[in-house]
Amino acid sequence: MTRILHRSIGVALPHAASAQGVYITDTMGRRYLDGSGGAAVTSVGHAHPEVLAAMRSQIDNLCYAHTSFFTTDAAEELAEKLVDLAPEGLDYVYLVSGGSEAVEAALKMARQYFVEINQPQRRHIIARRQSYHGNTIGALATGGNAMRRQQFQPILPETHHVSPCYAYRDKGIDETPEAYAARLADELEAKILELGPDEVMAFVAEPVVGATLGAVASEADYFKRVRAICDKYGVLLILDEVMCGMGRTGTVFACEQDGVTPDIVTIAKGLGGGYQPIGAVMLSASIYASFANGSGLFQHGHTYLGHPVAAAAANKVVEIIARPETLANVNAMGARLQSGLEAALGAFPYVGDIRGRGLFRGIEIVADRESKVPFDPARKLHAKIKRQAMARGLVSYPMGGTIDGINGDHILLAPPYIIEASEIDLIIERIAESIDAAIAE
Ligand code: PMP
């Protein structure tokens, strides 16, 4: 009997009791290898002594002071650190409590920026199909995940969607990655022209798609082309790195690998690393200046903005992520995960694609490899894989259902950055067994 409205009602969940490193232990004493960091949250591992010490020290001094009245050393230091690590041009930070809040704030920043610079007619948001930007109304409207939006559609503000960069399904056999990227950029440009170039506010995209497709990175110079089109029409580029940022893909910011700097970037999950709920929006100096020289106010705010204990935890998490040995391990273990999955699953008739960057890897399951036809969503294969993996002591992040006409089952693997080779091998072994067992069910 539970009094909690869990996401899946009637599904008995183990009670997590403690966690250390890459393992979570339940109240029955069972140990689970955290192969997905929850939902790509656990970045520096569980119970990292340095993070715990930083939080304790903050708790002993100050737990809360409202940001209308005070700032704190913890928040100021975190902002400084993030700006130091970010691609040049992202000079200011707005601290929130999670990913959806970060996306909401980013959208409002974009809107207020255009009001401040006397372009109040700019209001359209363009994002991509098969994307996820959060569950609050504005973020949900921005995302293109049909399944998550479905029943809320009538109350969502209008947004517009173009194709994601999803080579496995959409790139023509004879099309080069460059030609594919150019085709997608043309589609974005056509959408801007259709809506009216001086009425479009922002283009929003995840550099590596997470919660909808399982670690799909872009091809060739896709984001450089997108950046050029945004610049051509004065549209802001908002990159959502809530899931793929903070070292997850092997660089602190995922967009570093795409060679672009957005006007606004959102981060969350790995930033708090599971220690505290925290997210952040980073913005360009020109957006900041438009507020500072205009109304002198960003017309937004939540009670727990810049929470000092969350900021203190994130400060230490970011410091650990930025250490060269941490990112080196993300890259080495990420490569091991990719090649190990290819070796273990490459011959499975129902594994269509294995992909990703760093410790952000996805497996796409198909009923037939040749035609790429997915399994019938009614089979709920992703839910079976999740259950089979849990029974084998592995936390993974399978997702599925009907998504914009593509019925797909995907598995996201995103273990903590401190993972070791033997643990990577265990993830591979357990996920291969789980896929097999789920299909046999
Ligand atoms: N954006 C992206 C890219 C995400 O993956 C998520 C969460 N999966 C969110 C936003 C929303 O974050 P949160 O769940 O912390 O609100």
TrEMBL record:
Cofactor: pyridoxal 5'-phosphate
Protein keywords: Aminotransferase, Pyridoxal phosphate, Transferase
Gene3D superfamilies: Aspartate Aminotransferase, domain 1, Type I PLP-dependent aspartate aminotransferase-like (Major domain)
Entry's Gene Ontology molecular function annotations: pyridoxal phosphate binding; transaminase activity
InterPro entries referenced in this protein's UniProt entry, alphabetically: Aminotrans_3, Aminotrans_3_PPA_site, PyrdxlP-dep_Trfase, PyrdxlP-dep_Trfase_major, PyrdxlP-dep_Trfase_small
Keyword Transferase recorded: yes
One GO cellular component, as annotated: cytosol
Family: Belongs to the class-III pyridoxal-phosphate-dependent aminotransferase family.
PANTHER family named in the record: AMINOTRANSFERASE, AMINOTRANSFERASE CLASS-III
Protein name: Aspartate aminotransferase family protein
Organism whose genome encodes this protein: Vreelandella boliviensis LC1
Taxonomic placement: Bacteria, Pseudomonadati, Pseudomonadota, Gammaproteobacteria, Oceanospirillales
